[in-house]
Amino acid sequence: MLPGERRNNILEMLQINRSITVQSLCDTMAASEATIRRDLSVLENEGKLERTHGGAILSSRMKLEFEDSFYQKETQFPSQKRAIAKKAFEFLNENDSIVLDSGTTTRELARLIGQSMLHITVITNSTMLSGEISNNPNVALFVLGGKVRLNVLSSVGNIAIDTLRRFNVDKAFVAVNGLSAESGLTTPDIDEADVKRAMLASASERFVLADHSKFNRVAMCQIAPISMVDKIITDNDLEAGMLAQFETSGIQIFRA
Question: What is the mean pLDDT of the chain?
Answer without folding.
Answer: 88
